[in-house]
Amino acid sequence: MAFFVPMLAAVGSGSAITGAALLGSTALSVGGAISQARNAKAAASANATMMRQQASLARAQGNARQETQLRRAREILGQQRAAIGQAGVGWGGSAQDVLEQSATSAELDTLNIGYEAELQALGLMNQASITDWEGRQQRNAGYISAASSLLNSTANYFGNKGGSSFGGDGLSQGDRRKIGVY
């Protein structure tokens, strides 16, 4: 808050209360904007972390579903082999085609499960990245708002004095009226 020292030094005795009120208002506005900026960034970071955890969980669940699918496929292929053996039709021709098709379908089902899980995880990871970016943007907007509030308050203070070290003639509004300069 060292930036308020020059402001306080410029406050004359007649406008000490106005200057103090302006200073307090500015401090609250700047502090609120910075606090809001930090809180928005923290909330976005927490949400992004949760999305990354969900992505990890989606991958783990996909792996578990793939293992379940592989177990079921092995059972079904085993039952088909047993049925072919019991029927005594031999292992070539149509029987072999059925077994190969079943094995291929089981492999595709397993791969699709993994693909779906990975797509879900990638979607969550992308959303986490976007949420992180949004948090940074909200933080930056808050800092800009704080700076804008500080600059506006400074401009208002020096504008109300009628002059300043930023230019002008240095006359207050009362002095201007006294000498007839508007």
Outline the secondary-structure elements.
Elements: H1 5-10, H2 16-87, H3 93-161, H4 173-179
Helix pairs in contact: 2-3
- The number of domains: 1
By DSSP, the count of extended strands is: 0
How far is it from the N-terminal to the C-terminal residue, by CA?
Answer: 35 Å
**What order do the SSEs take from the amino end to the carboxyl end, as H and E?**
HHHH
Main β-sheet description: none
Fraction in helix:
over 70%
Residue share in β-strands: under 5%
Structural Rg: 36 Å
Please state the oligomeric state of the protein chains shown. Answer: single chain
**Helix count, DSSP H or I runs of 4 or more residues:** 4
Mean pLDDT: 84
Spatial shape: rod-shaped
Parts with pLDDT < 50 across at least 5 consecutive residues: 163-167
The SS-based structural class is: mainly alpha
Overview of this structure, please?
By secondary structure, this protein is mainly alpha-helical. It has one domain (19-158). Helices cover 85% and strands 0% of the residues. Helix 2 packs antiparallel against helix 3. The chain is rod-shaped, with a radius of gyration of 36 Å. The model is unreliable at 163-167 (pLDDT under 50).
